[in-house]
Amino acid sequence: MAQTIRIIKKYPNRRLYDTEISSYITLEEVRQLVMDGETFEVRDAKSGEDLTRSVLLQIISEHEDKGQPMLSPQLLSQIIRFYGDSLQGFMGPYLERSLQVFLDQQQQFRTQLNSMMGQTPWALLNELTERNMDAWKNMQRGFMDAASQAAPPPGQTGPTGRTTTKKP
């Protein structure tokens, strides 16, 4: 079954109208469509021109102004330098592939972390506790073995010159 593209119309007053729900929406609601994986296009209500990229860039710009930005001035400057460059056509696909590799690695990391954690964080904590107890027991055993090897057998003279006796 082919997925239909959701159409959002942008009017001259800069309002966005979602034709699927027959209601005006905000940029934040468009952002939520992106987060939800919805397929949509933003079209100029009068001319029909595709404005999707400019609306997405506007969302990025607003989020870059808030909180912790992802795009440093250096990165933005480097991207701007690619416009008009002979390699401009390669930059977009390269960035898309790089981001996809990053997302794939992030998913692998999350999967590995989840498998390490088991069903609950308590399972990991219990496992660590058991390992620490085993390590502690091994260390105690090592001390006991070292002490027993250093002590002379009963009836022999030890390093202090005293004779050791066996207690009944």
UniProtKB/TrEMBL annotation:
<feature type="domain" description="PHA accumulation regulator DNA-binding N-terminal">
    <location>
        <begin position="7"/>
        <end position="67"/>
    </location>
</feature>
<dbReference type="Pfam" id="PF05233">
    <property type="entry name" value="PHB_acc"/>
</dbReference>
<protein>
    <submittedName>
        <fullName>Polyhydroxyalkanoate synthesis repressor PhaR</fullName>
    </submittedName>
</protein>
<feature type="domain" description="PHB accumulation regulatory">
    <location>
        <begin position="71"/>
        <end position="110"/>
    </location>
</feature>
<feature type="compositionally biased region" description="Low complexity">
    <location>
        <begin position="157"/>
        <end position="168"/>
    </location>
</feature>
<dbReference type="Pfam" id="PF07879">
    <property type="entry name" value="PHB_acc_N"/>
</dbReference>
<dbReference type="InterPro" id="IPR007897">
    <property type="entry name" value="PHB_accumulat"/>
</dbReference>
<dbReference type="InterPro" id="IPR010134">
    <property type="entry name" value="PHA_reg_PhaR"/>
</dbReference>
<dbReference type="InterPro" id="IPR012909">
    <property type="entry name" value="PHA_DNA-bd_N"/>
</dbReference>
<feature type="region of interest" description="Disordered">
    <location>
        <begin position="147"/>
        <end position="168"/>
    </location>
</feature>
